[in-house]
Amino acid sequence: MKVLRVGVPVLALSLAGCAGGPVPVAVPEPVAADRAGAVEYYTRVQRDAMAALSDAFPEMQFRQSDPATTAYCEMPDGSAGTTVFLPIHLSDRPVPPGQLERAARVFEESLAGTGFRGARSLPVETGLQIRMFAADGSSISFGSYLAATVGLTVGCYPDRP
């Protein structure tokens, strides 16, 4: 796993998936006591969301496109933590024409009970982008334009042996 250190002052909770943005700060309701447990939990959530989408749209089979990366983050007590950007998965095909609302519903329903809420859909004429957030600073996204993609960022967690 490649490590990326970001040395920007903490200003606010950030869900940015790009290097150079504000350093994320952990918030309440963690899903695990440490980074390894959170990555395990969210990997399962991401896999379940992709399985639900592939079941509903068999032409959309997801594959990993990039390796996972990590970045420094600061815990509320000022100690160091790590944010993990899980591998982005994509399919060779987008959501079929006329099925964007159905795909959004399948994605959102697959996340029921996982801690994600606040879906924000950004529909356009030919595709969509949804991002949902968890209280620990994690976010999951689903998009479909030329291909369908699912990405997940694990919020700030302490590194414990």
Written account of the structure:
This protein is of the alpha+beta class and 161 residues long. The chain has one domain (2-8, 23-157): TBP-like (2-Layer Sandwich). It is 20% helix and 30% strand. It has helices at 35-56, 100-110; strands at residues 2-4, 63-64, 69-74, 80-85, 89-90, 116-121, 128-134, 139-144, 148-157. Strands 1, 2, 3, 4, 5, 6, 7, 8 and 9 form a nine-stranded mixed beta sheet that branches. A hairpin with a 6-residue loop joins strand 6 (116-121) and strand 7 (128-134). Helix 1 (35-56) runs antiparallel to helix 2 (100-110). The model is unreliable at 1-28 (pLDDT under 50).
In short:
With 161 residues, this protein is α+β, with helices and mostly antiparallel strands.
What is the strand content? Answer: 25-35%
Structural class: alpha+beta
> What is the 3D form?
elongated
Give the number of DSSP strands: 9
Number of helical segments with 4 or more residues: 2
How helix-rich are the residues, as a percent range?
10-25%
Looking at the overall shape, the CATH architecture is: 2-Layer Sandwich
Biggest pleated-sheet summary: 9 strands, mixed
Supply the CATH class: Alpha Beta
Alpha-carbon distance between the two ends: 17 Å
